[in-house]
């Protein structure tokens, strides 16, 4: 029962993060398209994890640069950890619930995928044994 509860908690956390990750992707794509223009200078997501969207956050252009460089998920995970501090239900072996890059047992991974100039962010949740519990690729609207 406890293991089923742990798995359910991780699946719910991964699913709940999807709209937030989608917002980060959309903002980054606006930054790629607009460069340093008006859309690129907008602040649309909480990139520093302080719970507010303001001029202290990264703008769309900066997010677009991170997306193109493959580091957007690193920024997302950092902000998420600062704001929410979620730990894995298997914390004795994994610590933080979130990780940027390749999936990892007992954690939720956020990774950047690109193909032919098109980008997506992939969320993958695994249990402590490395079994994939949830995966979702998020694309531009």
What does this structure look like?
This protein has helices spanning 2-34, 60-69, 72-84, 91-94, and strands at 98-100, 108-115, 118-126, 132-139. The chain is α+β, with helices and mostly antiparallel strands. The chain has a 4-stranded mixed β-sheet with strand order 1-2-3-4, covered by helices on one side. Helix 1 crosses helix 2. It is globular. The chain starts with a helix and ends with a strand.
What gap, in angstroms, lies between the N and C termini? 38 Å
Number of helices: 4
What average pLDDT do the residues reach? 94
The geometry reads as globular
List unreliable stretches of 5+ residues. none
Question: What is this structure's SSE topology?
Answer:
Blueprint: H1 2-34, H2 60-69, H3 72-84, H4 91-94, E1 98-100, E2 108-115, E3 118-126, E4 132-139
Parallel strand pairs: 1-2
Antiparallel strand pairs: 2-3, 3-4
Helix pairs in contact: 1-2
Short characterization:
This protein is α+β, with helices and mostly antiparallel strands and 141 residues long. Helix content is 43%, strand content 20%.
Describe this protein with a few key phrases.
single chain, 141 residues, alpha+beta, 4-stranded mixed β-sheet, 4 helices, 4 strands, globular
């Amino acid at each position: 029962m406890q293991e089923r509860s742990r798995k359910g908690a991780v699946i719910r956390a991964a699913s709940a993060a999807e709209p937030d990750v989608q917002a980060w992707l959309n903002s980054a794509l606006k930054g790629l398209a607009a460069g340093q223009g008006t859309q690129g200078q907008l602040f649309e997501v909480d990139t520093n994890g302080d719970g507010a969207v303001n001029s202290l956050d990264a703008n769309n252009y900066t997010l677009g640069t991170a997306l193109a460089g493959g580091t957007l998920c690193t920024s997302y995970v950092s902000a998420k950890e600062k704001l929410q501090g979620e730990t894995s239900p298997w914390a004795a072996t994994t610590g933080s619930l979130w990780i940027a890059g390749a999936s990892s047992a007992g954690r939720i991974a956020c990774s950047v995928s690109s193909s032919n100039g098109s980008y997506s962010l992939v969320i993958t949740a695994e249990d402590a044994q490395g079994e994939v519990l949830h995966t979702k690729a998020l694309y531009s609207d």
